[in-house]
Amino acid sequence: MLKKGRELVGFEVTLNNRPGSLSQLASIPKKLNLNIDYIETLSKSEDKYELFMIIDMTNTDISPEDFLKELRESKGYIIEASIAPSLKDIIYPSKFYVKTVGESRYIYIGEELMKPFATGIKHVLGREAGESFLYHYGIGVGRELFRSYAENRKIQGLEDSISLLKALFNAHAWANIKGYEYDDKSILLHLENLWECESQRDVDNMSGRGSHLVRGIISGFIKEALGKEIVVKETKCVANGDPYCEFEISIIT
Q1: Which of 18, 156, 207, 246 is the most buried (most CB within 10 A)?
Q2: Fold (CATH) for 109-251
Q3: CB atoms within 10 A of CB 143
Q4: Between 127-149 and 213-226, two packed helices, what is the crossing angle to 10 degrees?
């Protein structure tokens, strides 16, 4: 988390895993007229869970040490508490925690890594070969997503499958599937905030459509869901100035 000019302070809190613990924690900043700017569960077990939270202490006479004392005096719910480390305007947890989405480990990869991945491969391999690599890699990701999350839950039918795809895209912060249309021969997906295309808005000499990795993910996922051959084309793209990204899925067989 970045302070962005405010007096933000991070705290790491270990709670007893029982009803009322989170409510008890939230009552402390409320009592002191402080706002919780951010809160995240870092790890959870049968008897306890650990939280990382950011308190906005801008324009207050209460010190971080005073707030920490309040936390430590809340007996019965809070096991331990400490001030999170910071560097300049960066606040971060002191421990490394493995995060999961469903059954899978979740890895945060920022735009500073993904933009060179999406554009650098095309630079090294050439545009056509790079786009082909991203697309076929995406197909494998899409197939694996469907097999991991849909098959063991017996998700069937196009509507449930697209609802699952929307949930996965939201969970991984890839894009927001705002809507879709379909008939027997085609599906039209409307996506907003698609990271792959947004990261290429400032790429010089942009031509064609920006999404090849995510287009492949959609292709692999929908192919597994329908059990049919399909072709996926990006018909609108924010990298080319369109207000959103649009994918047309043609059902072949």
Answers
A1: 246
A2: Muramoyl-pentapeptide Carboxypeptidase; domain 2 (3.30.1380)
A3: 17
A4: 40
What is the fold, at CATH topology level, of the domain defined by 8-97? Alpha-Beta Plaits (3.30.70)
Backbone angles phi, psi at 15, to 5 degrees: -110, 150
91-114 burial by CB neighbour count: b if 16+ within 10 A, else e? bebeeeeeeeeeeeeeeeeeeeee
Q: Length of the chain in residues, anyone?
A: 253
Helix (H, G, I), strand (E, B), or coil: what is residue 195? helix
Query: Can you give the residue ranges of every domain in the chain?
Result: 8-97, 109-251
Tell me: the pLDDT tens digits for 206-242? Answer: 556 889 999 999 999 999 999 999 999 999 999 888 9
Give the largest CA-CA distance in the chain. 68
- Indicate the DSSP class of residue 101: E
- CB 178 within 8 Å of CB 244: yes
Residue 86 burial (10 A CB sphere; 0-12, 13-18, 19+) = middle
Mean pLDDT for the stretch of residues 128-136: 91
